[in-house]
Design goal:
Length: about 230
């Protein structure tokens, strides 16, 4: 399996103009935590790091230099990212030479190796899989500032990454998306809409929080510490 980690984004909501994947949590960059988890799963043959070319020094010195695990047993590819997440995802998957790919947001540092194994098992059987967690809050439609219908929480999940796919299936779908100018918020949506496959939903982890704001960073520190 190839792990494709997306780290080329900008952190406009974090402020200070610093890519959040290079911010440190408990002495290690956010991105380093994600890479270590993939390596710890024991099922990754290849690592594709999709990064911003202007930040290559940070990737090499700060991130890879802080790893707890050895990269010598797997293939590591460094690929420049695109303008949008979808472009970066496509570039990373195209660079992979594995039959299965697991695409992950570099800003999600707190997920488990067990989750990766469960996702790959589901992907081998179904062609695509992603982690999802049921919302705990009441969800209600907002109709121009007025309350609308209440959404059935039991029929909805909050979508996370890693998201795993058979490589050929994902690549065919994302190529069509880019060529037709259609953009999606995640890879599972691309495969579902354009690949003709309904991804399997694997139970996600509530601690698998995506860092979007400074508050998320503090929450992740607590979660990893515990």
């Amino acid at each position: 399996m190839g792990a494709v980690i997306l780290a080329a984004g900008r952190s406009s909501r974090m402020g200070q103009g610093v890519n959040k994947v290079y911010r440190e949590i408990l002495g290690k960059p956010v991105l380093t935590h994600s890479i270590d988890t993939f390596l710890g799963s024991g099922i990754v043959d290849e690592m594709v790091l999709v990064f911003n070319e202007e930040e290559e020094d940070l990737l090499e010195e700060k991130v890879l230099g802080a790893l707890d695990r050895d990269l010598s047993d797997i293939i590591v590819r460094r690929i420049p990212g695109g303008k949008k997440r979808q472009d970066s995802s496509r570039a990373g998957v195209r660079a992979s030479e594995t039959d299965y790919v697991c695409i992950h947001d570099g800003a999600r540092p707190n997920f488990s190796s067990d989750l990766i194994v469960k996702l790959l098992d589901a992907t081998v059987e179904h062609g695509a899989a992603f982690p999802g967690v049921k919302p705990v809050d009441t969800i209600r439609a907002n109709n121009q500032g007025y309350a609308g219908a209440t959404i059935d929480r039991d029929r909805h999940v909050k979508v996370q990454t890693p998201q795993c796919f058979r490589k050929d299936l994902h690549l065919n779908a994302i190529n069509e998306a880019v060529e037709t100018g259609r953009y999606f918020t995640d890879d599972a949506g691309i495969v579902m809409e354009l690949g003709g496959v309904r991804p399997r939903v694997v139970e996600g982890e509530r601690s698998n929080v995506k860092i979007t704001t400074a508050l998320d960073t503090r929450l992740i520190e607590v979660l990893i510490s515990s």
